[in-house]
Amino acid sequence: MKKPWYYFLYVRSPLAKIFLGIVSVVITIAALLFLGVVEEQRMEAQTANWDGRAIEKGADLYANNCANCHGPDGKGLPGVAPALHSKYFFTQRLNDISWTGSLHDYVALTVAAGRPSKVNSQWAQRMPTWSQHYGGPFRDDQVENVTKFVLNWEADALLQGTAENPDPWQPFVDAPTRAMAADGSAMGAEAAPEPTAPLPPQQLFVTMGCSGCHNLDAPQDATNRGPVGPNMGNLPEIAGTRVAGEDATTYVHNSIVNPNVHVVEGYVAGIMPQNFTERMSEEEINSLVEWLLDPNRQR
Ligand code: HEC
Ligand code: HEC
After folding, report:
1. What is the distance between the alpha carbons of residues 251 and 230, in angstroms, rounded to a whole number?
2. CA torsion angle for 149, 155, 157, 161 (degrees, to 10)?
3. What was the pLDDT predicted at 132?
4. Count of alpha carbons within 13 Å of 12, Cβ hemisphere only?
5. CA angle, 93 as apex, 89 and 99 as ends, to 5°?
6. How far is CA 145 from CA 44, 47, 55, 64, 78, in A?
C-alpha cells in the first residue's frame, strides 16, 4: 500500500506519543496564561479609557451647570460657592464635618441632593439639587460623571498651599478649621477680616470678589461677555443707558446693592451676591460706584 503524504506525522513509539502529549498541554497552558496577562492589561487600559470619557463628559456638565457658582476652574467664587479645586477640600473637609464615608460619596450625594437653604447663609444662593431622584435634571450617570470630574482635581489641588499657589478655599463660617490657618497648612486664602476703616475702591473690588466675576479692562460686547458677569471696560459709557430713567450713578449703585432688580440681558438673576450692603459701608459702596464710573479709573 502506498504511504499517504502525511505519513511522516505518524508516531509509533508510545513513549514519544506521551511526550508529545505532555509538551502540547504545557504549550497550551503557557499560551492561556500569556493571554490572561495581556487581557488584564487590556482591561486596565479600557477602564482608564472609560474613566477618561466619564471625566470628559463631567467637564461639559461642570462647565454648563456648576461653573457659574463654583468658578470656571473650580476654585470657588467669593460669597457664591466654596472651592472644590482646593487642597482643603481634598484633605480636611471631611474631617471637619465628621463624614466617615468616602469623598466620592460625599461629592456624589451633595450633587444629587443639593443643600437645604440656611438662614443667613454666607453663600448668595443655595446649592441646587441635581439628581432626577430629587427632582433635578441629572441622570445617575451624569451625577457620576461630574463627580469623577471634580475628584480629578485632586492631584493638582494637593500642590496648593504655597505663596504662588494658595489654597482658594473660603472657610465655612461654621467650620472648625479656622485653627488650621494659623500654621498655613491647609489654608492659603483666609477670608478678609471685617474692615474697620473704609477701604479704597481698588481694594474693595478684589476683596469683595468683584474681580472674580468682572473684568475691569475689557469692554462688554457680544463676543466678549466677561468671565461670569459683564465686563466693565466700557461701563462709564453704557451704565446710563441700561435702565430708562436711571442715571449711571443710580444704576451702578442699584446693581451693587440690589443686583436682581435689573438683570443685564443674557445673564441670570442670583449669581451676583445679594449681601454687599452687609459687607460694605454706604461710604465704601459710593466710592466704588464713583471709581467704576470714572473713565480714567486707576488701579
Ligand atoms: C447656585 C449656585 C451653585 C451651583 C449652580 C452649584 N453649586 Fe455646589 N454649592 C453651592 C453652595 C452655596 C455650596 C455650599 C453649601 C453649604 O454648605 O451651605 C455648594 C457646595 C457644593 C459641594 C460641597 C462642598 C463642600 O466643601 O462641602 C459640592 C461637592 C458641590 N457644591 C458641587 C457642585 C457641582 C458638581 C455642581 C454642578 C453640577 C454645583 N455644585 C453647582 C452653590 C452652587
Ligand atoms: C459671583 C459673580 C459676581 C460677583 C462676585 C460680582 N458680580 Fe456684579 N454681576 C454679576 C453678574 C452675573 C451680573 C449680570 C446680572 C445682573 O445684572 O445681576 C453682574 C452685574 C453687575 C453690574 C451691572 C453691569 C452692567 O453691565 O450693567 C455691576 C455694576 C456690577 N455687577 C458690579 C459688581 C461689583 C462692584 C461687585 C463687587 C462688589 C460685583 N459686581 C460682584 C456677577 C458678579
Report:
1. 14
2. 180
3. 92
4. 2
5. 135
6. 19, 14, 6, 13, 26
pTM given for the model: 0.60
Residue whose C-alpha cell reads 435702565 in the numeric block = 243
Q: What CATH class is the domain 201-292?
A: mainly alpha
Q: Is the pLDDT of residue 117 over 70?
A: no
Question: What is the distance between the alpha carbons of residues 31 and 3, in angstroms, rounded to a whole number?
Answer: 34
Does 263 sit in the ligand 2 pocket, CB within 6 Å? yes
Ligand 2 pocket, residue 289 CB under 6 Å: no
pLDDT tens-digit readout, 259-279 = 988 999 888 887 888 888 888
- Does an H or E element contain 57, and which? helix 14-65
pLDDT (0 to 100) of residue 125: 79
End-to-end CA gap in the chain: 108
Place of cell 454648563: 64
Distance 73 CA to ligand 1 centre (A): 14
Q: Is 252 in the pocket of ligand 1 (CB under 6 A)?
A: no
Q: How far is the CA of 216 from the centre of ligand 2 (A)?
A: 11
Q: How confident is the model at residue 183 (pLDDT cuts 50, 70, 90)?
A: very low
Domain boundaries, the chain: 67-183, 201-292
Q: Which long-range contacts (CB under 8 A, 24 or more apart) does 261-265 make?
A: 264/229, 264/230
